[in-house]
Amino acid sequence: MTVWIVTPVYRDVGSFQILRRRLLEILDDSEYLRGVPVRFVVIDDTAGQDADVGLLESFGDVAVLQPPFNLGHQRAIVYALRKCLPTIDDDDLVVTLDADGEDRPEDLPRLLAPLHNAEGVRQKVVLALRTKRRESLSFKVMYRLFRVLFRALTGTTVRSGNFAAMPGAVARNVLRHPTFDLSYSSAILALDVPVEYVPCERGARYEGRSKMTFGKLGLHGLRMLMPFTDRIAIRALGIFAFCLVIGLTLALVVFGIRLFTDSSIPEWAPILALASLIVSLVALGNFVTLFVLFSQTRAISLANIEDMPSQAEWDEVTL
């Protein structure tokens, strides 16, 4: 069994060196992980622009991958995992995390523990459940608002990030799915992969400052919603149906009162009925848009699937 540590690095080689040293110390102190071979896969997300990445060539347990262009940390992880799949055995353990220290190495033994039992490796994904964050007040407020919005649109609560562990067999089965092209962390939730959560605090950066701006954070949030297009479309349809029923009911009540009685109609009643109908039509338009997008996504996911390499062909490829 080999433990694969996959991490994106964006002008943060110093932090990775600290992370590697800490992980090796912690794994060596773990009773059931001591002596297990460890391989680090670093994705240089500057696409070769960071000269400091060359310092990692001296480490025999580190492989550096350079994508053709900047992918962002989540897609960089998927890129690296797919590159590594041919050399990962079913019983290997695959760990993904950020290199800056915010995913704490001290939590790795607890993250890997649920994957072991007396019969072998359990086929599921273990995610770090964020219990505490060392962030600014503005970031915490924005993050909570995003969680509320995410829950309202998808029906799923998101409290995890890139810090995850899975057996090689699970990685082989799920990571080729096109949903992972959109978002690594939320694709795991959208595909209903068996998941177990382990509470983990968010750590502090080893050095430097975060490269994540509010603009990049907003884009990251949008990407996390994309794997849930089908659920968002269904909820939009529900809102349309609800608003349509309310609007039609109010319109019929107003029409009945005017046609069959001499009672006066409150001025707000026709306005409310009209507003409900307009909202229902807007909701219908949103539903149609999301439905078309969902259909196109599913069509693309099957495009040329017959040309994809089989498992045997993957096994013949070497990293």
Brief rundown of the structure:
The chain is built from 10 helices and 9 strands.
What this model shows, in words?
This protein has 2 domains: 3-212, Spore Coat Polysaccharide Biosynthesis Protein SpsA, Chain A (Alpha-Beta Complex); 230-307. The protein contains 10 helices and 9 strands. Helix 1 links the parallel strand 1 (3-9) and strand 2. The protein has 319 residues and is an alpha/beta fold. The longest helix has 34 residues, at 268-301. The mean pLDDT is 81. Strands 3-2-1-4-8-7-9 form a 7-stranded mixed sheet, with helices on both faces. The chain is elongated, with a radius of gyration of 25 Å. 30% of the residues are buried. The chain has helices at 13-29, 73-84, 108-112, 137-154, 168-174, 184-190, 214-225, 229-260, 268-301, 311-315; strands spanning 3-9, 38-44, 62-65, 93-96, 116-117, 120-121, 125-130, 164-167, 195-200.
Short key terms for the protein model shown above:
single chain; alpha/beta; Spore Coat Polysaccharide Biosynthesis Protein SpsA, Chain A; seven-stranded mixed beta sheet; elongated
Count every helix, treating DSSP H or I runs of 4 or more residues as helices: 10
Average pLDDT, all residues: 81
Helix % is 40-55%
Counted up, domains total 2
What proportion strand?
5-15%
CATH class of the largest domain: Alpha Beta
The chain-level structural class is: alpha/beta
Sum up the overall morphology in one term: elongated
Computed CA radius of gyration, to the nearest angstrom: 25 Å
How many DSSP-defined strands?
9
Distance between the termini: 17 Å
CATH T-level fold name of the largest domain: Spore Coat Polysaccharide Biosynthesis Protein SpsA, Chain A
The H/E string reads EHEEHEHEEEHEHHEHHHH
